[in-house]
Design goal:
Elements lengths: L4 E6 L4 H13 L4 E5 L7 H7 L3 H6 L1 E3 L2 H5 L4 E5 L10 E2 L1 H12 L4 E5 L8 H4 L4 E3 L12 H18 L17 H17 L9 H14 L3 H17 L1
Helix pairs in contact: 1-2, 1-7, 5-7, 8-10
């Protein structure tokens, strides 16, 4: 299994779920865990539930924001248990695992899990290229966080075992793709220039920002394309 696959847990409220998630990951050969503002960690309960996956807990990166956790990733997939009114492709766990494994051969990727109570916020979802949704029954769709991690870990394991090294990913050249940190810097530059041009108010227009993020996430611009756009924005900024 590639070390480029990162599992990100957002704002986990129950420390036992962190330990159980670490155990689920380790049994399937996954080792990169990031925790964003966990409410109770480090924790003896997390260590107990990890049942031998203490190394994942010890090496887990503790982050203040999702942006910090995914900044090196060139592909981000979020998890959702409910339908979203956002134009982001929704795929199943098997498809998500195949994409994660393939792209992880060339660059870092992230799979993000939201809070136990309400999942990922719309703002967090906007950072994702895809959303993965497990086909639970509508009458009882609630799935424990650690259980969801186990399902996705298993699918990643199966995808990795089936992966053929000779498969080429020329469209995902490591030199061309940009990571989440570069994209976030681009978005902030884009929005600042829009505000200076009086096309975007500093307060409001959040729906427009969302649409712009989703549009560029769908396109997945390459490094030279981002450089062209940033150059244009800098020139326009000076003119303004």
């Amino acid at each position: 299994m590639s070390n480029n696959i990162r599992f990100v847990l957002l704002g986990t409220t129950h420390s036992g779920n962190i330990g159980a998630a670490a155990r689920a990951m380790k049994t399937m050969g996954l080792t990169d865990l990031a925790l964003v503002k966990p409410e109770d960690f480090p924790s003896s309960q997390a260590t107990s539930r990890a049942s031998g996956a203490d190394d994942l807990l010890f090496n887990a990166e503790i982050c203040k924001t999702m942006d910090e956790a995914i900044k090196k990733s060139k592909l981000v997939i979020g998890t959702t248990a409910r339908k979203r009114h956002l134009d982001i492709p929704v795929i199943n766990a098997r498809e998500a695992a195949q994409i994660l494994v393939k792209e992880s051969q060339q660059h870092p990727v992230s799979l993000v899990f939201g809070k136990e109570r309400y999942g990922m916020t719309n703002q967090e979802v906007e950072r994702c290229h895809y959303l993965v949704r497990l086909p639970t029954v509508e009458s009882f769709s609630s799935l424990n966080l650690a259980a969801a991690v186990q399902v996705l870990s298993y699918e990643c394991r199966m995808a990795a075992m089936a992966y053929e090294p000779e498969q080429k990913l020329e469209q995902f050249s490591n030199e061309e793709m940009v990571n989440a940190e570069v994209m976030e810097s681009f978005y902030q530059h884009y929005f600042n220039v829009m505000e200076k041009a009086l096309y975007l108010r500093k307060e409001g227009h959040e729906s427009l920002k969302t649409k712009i993020r989703i549009m560029y996430n769908r396109i997945r611009p390459k490094r030279h394309e981002i450089d062209i756009l940033r150059g244009f924005l800098s020139k326009l900024d000076k003119k303004l």
